[in-house]
Amino acid sequence: MKRAFALLRESLFTALAQPVASVVSIVMVAGMCATVLLTTGRTVGAEQTVIGSIDSAGTRSIVIHAEPGAGLKADVLNRIATVDGIEWAGAFSTAVDFTNVSIPDGTKVPVRLAWGANLSSLGITPDPALPNGTAWASPLALTQLGMPDKFGGIASTAGTNYPVVGVLRTPDYLTMLEPLVVIPESPDTHVDQEVSVLVVIASRPDLVAPVTQAVQSILAVDDPTKVTITTSEELATLRSLVQGQLGSFGNNLVLVIFALTAVLVAAILYGLVMLRRKDFGRRRALGATRGLIILLLLMQMAILSVIGTLLGTGLSIISLRITNDPLPSFSFLLALAILAVAVGIVAALLPAVAASRRDPLKELRVP
Amino acid sequence: MIEAKNISFGYSSTQLLIDRWDASFAAGEVVAVTGPSGRGKSTLLYLLGLMLKPHSGTVLVSGEDVSGLNDRNRAHIRASTFGFVFQDAALDATRTVLDNIIETALYRGEPRETAARRARELMDQFGVGLRANAKPGQVSGGQAQRIALCRALLNNPRILLADEPTGNLDPASADIVVKAFHTQAASGATVIVVTHDPALVVRCHRKIEL
């Protein structure tokens, strides 16, 4: 540990002792990071924003509408549970109009029974104290029901009552059901009841098509003509096109920038080694091994690269914020930082090896 | 202490600068190597100091053949067993005097604190104690050579090699350097000095003419 600290200290002091060369190296690496971030980084940020917009439109959703008499039962969820590549699935019964029990002449809001293994993702938590079922309403439904306190009761014209006990989080893929009020059913109750809407969310956009085929094959409906399937396959294709085009442009640009910077850093360091050849000759004469000379130069460049990366990344983020451009993700920034330091170290390898092979006798005779 | 047995070396493949040369240097003696320019005095010093490998023959330190060792082991011996004084002091102009003196500690793996303590003792001994934080460009030629001497003596070397150590010095500074060589030899070290300086030659125990 002490040895590592001593080497780090020596590398740091050597870097400090050559301020011009160190500043040039830092500026090179900072420039590399800034160039990547202000070009590819901006592109990646824009790509992530576009992809986010496409995703919010329901890139991975498969919606199956079943008319009355189609014969689509809630137990379809048990079969869907066996299909791979599905993140979420839920089934909803035909809507029945309900009103606020306190406002019998108020706005009628459609209420549906809901089945699903993961209804908690909608903000629903089971309440054992209310065994006959509870209603959960979206903010829009609560407004239409006239329940500003988000609690109350609803009643159907047939006289069925439910207490409203919570607020639903309506995800993008369920907005077509708004205003949404659901009565959660446990997965094994009323499974032979017909459902009118089945929503399946694939794990990834590229799985939409195969998952649709798989789900279609296990619907087990009585009348397929009364079933309509709507998928986001076209959106998924658009998504992959956007990702592919922007991704490949960004990757190529990053490669070119990194390669150019590596060559420039290597050239600068090689020039520096030539200027300091007497220094390396003296070190070799006094007992430094070739490996130690290489290690010292690589550590020196690693220190300068870290400083350059922090500087370039920091300034670029400030610049992107000022211009209101989208920022790339943290993982992109982290990958860029690691790559930038690696490029600095790799670029220093050849000059370091050249430095380690200087002939002490020859170099000590340099005037 | 150190022996050269039948060593040959040349910078070109056709002409040998040193041809089947034998010599033995005992512990406790200060030996001057003299001769006209271009006869290979410095080259001989670097061969003995393991910075060059002889084309043939062997260099023995305490009876052990070290000339055939790999670069890593020869570097280790240079850092631990040898001390070097070069003609122009060869100090790092970008580092402080103290950092220059303790440079070899890094190569030996010696802790900086221990080396710095010993370096300060040597600097006081050679009258440069007050220049620890100065840069080499801020000291005189005589002081620079004394600083180089401190660096060479830091590891209390068993073999001290000096290449024209008094070439650029005034008589008073040269006297300090020569006395240091004799002190080191008296402690059991071997001191080999390449020099043109007759005043230095006469103060050595023995002279080898190339």
From TrEMBL, chain B:
GO CC field: plasma membrane
Keyword Membrane in record: no
Record keywords, A-Z: ATP-binding, Nucleotide-binding
Domain ABC transporter: 2-210
InterPro entries documented for this protein: AAA+_ATPase, ABC_transporter-like_ATP-bd, ABC_transporter-like_CS, ABC_transpr_LolD-like, P-loop_NTPase
Record-linked Gene3D superfamilies: P-loop containing nucleotide triphosphate hydrolases
GO molecular function terms noted in the UniProt entry: ATP binding; ATP hydrolysis activity; transmembrane transporter activity
Name of the molecule in the record: ABC transporter
Native species: Subtercola boreus
